[in-house]
Each structure stands twice: as structure tokens, then as C-alpha cells.
Amino acid sequence: MSRRHYPWFLLSGISVLCAAQIVEADPRPLRDDISVKMITSVGRNIFRIAKDPRDNTLYIQANNGTISRIDIKDPGDQIGEQIARGRVDGSVRVWDIIEPAQAVPDSVPLEAIRQADADGATRATDPTDGAGYALSSSNGSIVALPRTPVATREEYGLPFARALFIGADGTFYVTLDLDQANATSATVVATSADHGFSDVQGFDIDRNGTFFIGAITRDGGRVNNIARGDLDPATNERRWRIVAVTEPIPPGTKNHPHPGIVLSPDDRFVFLNSGSRTDHGEVAPADGYPEGTREVPLASAILRVPADGDGIVIPADGQALAASGYLFADGFRNAFDMAFSPDGDLFAADNGPDSDLPDALMWVREGHHFGFPWRMGGIDNPQQFGGYDPSVDNYILFTQSGARSDGLFHSDPTFPPPPARLSDPVINLGPDADRLRDPVTGGVIDASDAGASVMTFTPHSSPLGIIFDTKGVLIPEFRGDGFLLRTGGDCCDLINSFNDPDEDLLHLDLEKVGDNYQARITRIVEGFRGPMDAEIVDNRIYVIERSGPLGLWEITLPRGRMTAVESESSTTPRFEALDQNYPNPFNPTTTITYRLDAPGSVKLAVFDLAGQRIRRLVDAYRVAGVYVAEWDGNDDQGRRVASGVYLYRLQTATTTMSRRLTLLK
């Protein structure tokens, strides 16, 4: 994730109830139509949060490999007031549960019980004999003072006890602790003992609920691993296996062993960040490699492998790697976080170097080189040019970074020439996260205020947690857009010289222009402490932190009205969906994924914009499940159709849904 050496990446423990450092987080919305609330504290070293697409259940993944399910009770599922009543019947006490929302016997002193609950009274005296009783703070048992147990939680029937009250007739009443009963809880569902990895930094879940992780091992160098855990419905257990491993990557001067992963929209591929081994392309000798080695073929790249792979070995040799088809794109320093937009475009948030060059958001395309180490944040690396003198380089003079302290900025006459063509990052049009260092004066420039632009973020922002409104549920201003976290000021303070408030949530209003994107970027929530990752469910964004209270925060964004397609049926099943085709635009073929909540007749077809059917893809009975159809760009007669925009429509007994796709030639 980061550009510096962080000991927190090496910690393997996770505490369920965290004793966080005393640094308060106070996330605040910067718009009146956004709300923020803390859900729970997640514990230390939580790296990832992901949702199960089947039911939107959230899972968090810790650096040590532990994966936990987050159980958030919706308002409609919350437990109401309950009182356990214990009446003496002969020589025993008989317990039952009273729910005041239903009915309360006249003999129950409800107001007195509620007052005891409000006071948190854990001690009471039996008026019939003067004996004292208390609720144990350790296990919830009722004890006769000083310490004789008389009733356990299992006996009186409440999972969490708040208060004890004893009526005039000696009847015991125990109230349910509603805060604990309705609290968000984390349940461990997998650990390193299950999948075999103790340094895990990537996590995603496919539409079948299969877990995918990106992990690091060390065997003669850094080895990136992708593993998957398939759920066995018969046993409800996961069977783990290795999808792919890289051959070892030798350690360098500034290593980025952070294997973030993301699944393609159709779940066919896993994309893996294989970070750089240098800060900015300086010489980093490696055993078994030529003298003067800097980066190696497997580093500073995004790799792609089939999600159903089994034991794939990704070669370290450059020619073998190119021939394997596993190298998707090159020229990244540390693309720790990636996500697909609703149109199927892959974006990666890339950390810049220890100099004051911008951090970047890349539109990642197969076969492209995105500049590192020759160009970072759209700015040429000065060290590649003859006569480079670090003593007059304003990109390093105002930031006391690790690379500068280690002497990694120096005259470098053997710096190799760049590739023939480099692709630039997304252009930030402002108004936020767009500070620049003036290479001439060393001053700080607010790019949008100065009529300039930056590619893409203020240096040292450490962009993370990129997500998209892929379901199109938000108001038009946000619909289909991206959102991204910045954690820079928490991890290293190098952003401080730019006087740019960060540790925030940004709105990315992206627009495709020519062969790149530009974005209007706006801060919408501020005040996090080390925001680490994000997930989106409907109109709610969930953010996990690595500092302060280690919070799991829920940011609620304004929902939009139903679209015309959505309003065609008011009985759309909860899980029935038609996904955006991938790739889009496409040539020669594209895949369309759809989900059915119930069995029935299904029609899926492609139409032109005049409403004429071009190609029938599916006309059959289907059981509930996830399906993938493919269109090869031909009509029903096998003729190639013209380039342009088409509609594809899914019809079931309960709903009709349509989307657009674009065929290019």
C-alpha cells in the first residue's frame, strides 16, 4: 500500500477487541445529504473489506490471514426489549421471558425494572429476606453475595444482561443489554491454518461466494500467491487451493510486497498487483540478474491469471512472462488497490515515489506501459537525465523521505531509455486533491486554482479503497461514479508540506476523453484516521481504518429515483440482476452475466436502438443461479453487424432489464 517501510505490514496479530492508540477519528460529511456513523471497531491490521455478491454480507481480512464475517443487524432485525423473570416455585426458580412490546402481566413492576435498567443496577436486595444478589461482570451469572451462583445466563435465557431487579415478592428480573444484543459482531470464518498464508494483503469474493486472497511468501525472494477457497455446500466448509504463484522476485532497495487483487466483472480472471522493488528505478542489485539491475520483469506490473487456475507458475524470465499471457500491464510502482467501473474499465490507484511526484489513478489497459520508473504522475523522473543533481531537485528538497536519507537520489548516467510509448494517469481537474510542487521555485501550487491539472493526486496521498457505484443506485450527481480514500497523512506525514487535508473520501466524476479519462475530484467526507479500504453496498460505503479507533464506518449517500428499466417491475427479486457486459466496448466478443432468483423462462436478446431484435442469446427455462452468455457480434443469420451502440435485454416472469453495449471494429 505504502511507499515507505511500515512495520504494521509485518505484524501478524489481530485483536478482536482492539486497544487502539489514543488518536480519535471524527469522520464528517462535507455535504448535508451524506451521513456518517461508526458501526464497530474492527481490530488491528485489518487490510481489506469485501462483500459477498450473493447477499451483500461484509467480510474483513487481516494481514495475518484471518477472514471474519461482519454481522450488521438491520433496523428491522434488531432485538427489542426483553426481561427474564425468575419466580420461586417450591424449591426451584422458574424462568420465562417477557417482551413488553407484546404483553406485560399486571404483577410485573415494569417501570421499576426499567429504572433499574436505566441505572445499570447490577446489585439488588431481596425484600423478603434481605439477602443481597449481583450480576457477575465476568459471565453474567446471578450470585448470592458474596459469590454463590444461583442462576446462569443459560438458565435465565438472555445472552447479555444489563440490570438486576428484585420485586416485592422476591421475583427476580434481569433486563437484556440491548446495546450488546444488537451490536455488530465479527465471526472468524477462515484463518492461516485453513489457507496456509500468514501475510495476506489481497481479498475479493466472486458471485458464488468463493474467497480469493493475495498473499506473500518468501523463498529466495518475494513470491506472490493467489489462492481460492470454494465453499462446499454439503459441509459449509471451504476447500482451499493455489490458483497461481510467481517465481521469486529478488529484494531491492524499496520493496512493495503488497499483492492486492481484484476479480474481473465476469469472475473469469484475477488481477494481481506485483509491486516494484525500487523507489524510482535506481540500481538495485539482485543475485542471478545482470549487473545494474533495477526493476525485474515480474515487478512493477499488474498480472492476470484465470480465476479457475490450478497451481499456475508465473515465470520470472521476461520472454517467458510475455509469452505466458499473464503480464497484463506494466509500469506501476505499487497499484495496491484496483476496481472495475460500471463500463468494465479497470482502474488502479498507484502510490508515487518518495519524491514529490503525484500519486496516480490509472485506467489500466492490456499491453500498456504506465510509466514507472521513467514517468510518475505524468512527470518525467529527473534522475533518468544526464547531469542530474539532487542538490537542486525541488522534488526532493522539501520532503525528508526514506529514499532521500538512503542516498537513492543521485547522478545516474546508466539509467536505461524508456519504452517507446507510455500511457498517462487520469487527469484531475480539481477542485480537490490536486496540489503540485513547482519544480522551479519549490513552491506548492493548487493546480485547479492555477488553471492547471495534475495526474492525479497530491503527492504522498496514498490512494486506496477505490470503489464504483456499479449498480447505479445513487443520485445522478454520483450515479456510476467512483469513490476513493486517501490515507497519506496517517502513514508517513510526507503530504504535510503540501497543506492538503487528506485521510478523506473522494468523489471521482470520471469522463472518458480520447484515449484517457479526466475527473472532477471532490472531497465528500473528512476526518478518518488511516482509512485503509472501502466497499459499497447499495447506497452505503463502508470504510475500515488502521489507526485511531480502528473503526468500521458507514457512509450513507443519497439514493436516486428508480430508472425506467427498474420501474418496469415492482416485484424484481432481490438477487435478480443483469450485469454490464465485459469488455465494453468490445471486439470481437463480449460476455453478459445475469442472475436469477427463481426458476422460470428466460429471454436474453440484443436489439438495435430502434427496438429491432438483432440476436437471440437465450430463450429457455433456467433454474435460479448465475449465468454467462456470449455475443460474437453476429445477428441471428450469422452476419456481422455494424459498429455502434446496441441494447441487450433480460426478460423473466417478474422483470425486464436492459443495458447498452458498444461494438467496435
Could you explain how this protein is built, in words?
This protein has eight helices and 45 strands. Strands 1, 29, 32, 33, 34 and 35 form a six-stranded mixed β-sheet that branches. Strands 15-16-17-18-22 form a five-stranded mixed β-sheet, with no helix packed on it. Residues 1-22 and 562-575 have low confidence and may be disordered. It has three domains: 7-72 and 187-556, 6 Propeller (Neuraminidase), CATH 2.120.10.30; 80-181, no CATH class; 564-663, Immunoglobulin-like (Sandwich), CATH 2.60.40.4070. With 665 residues, the protein is mainly beta.
Provide tags for this entry.
single chain, about 675 residues, Neuraminidase, Immunoglobulin-like, six-stranded mixed β-sheet, five-stranded mixed β-sheet, 8 helices, disordered N terminus
Give the biggest beta sheet: 6 strands, mixed
Enter the CATH topology name of the largest domain. Neuraminidase
Helix content: under 10%
Task: Give the CA-CA distance, first to last residue.
Answer: 38 Å
**What is the CATH homologous superfamily assignment of the largest domain?**
TolB, C-terminal domain
Radius of gyration, rounded?
29 Å
Number of contiguous helices? 8
CATH class of the largest domain: Mainly Beta
The helix-and-strand class reads mainly beta
Globally, the shape reads globular
- Strand count: 45
Q: List unreliable stretches of 5+ residues.
A: 1-22, 562-575
- Would you identify the CATH architecture of the largest domain? 6 Propeller
| Number of self-contained structural domains | 3
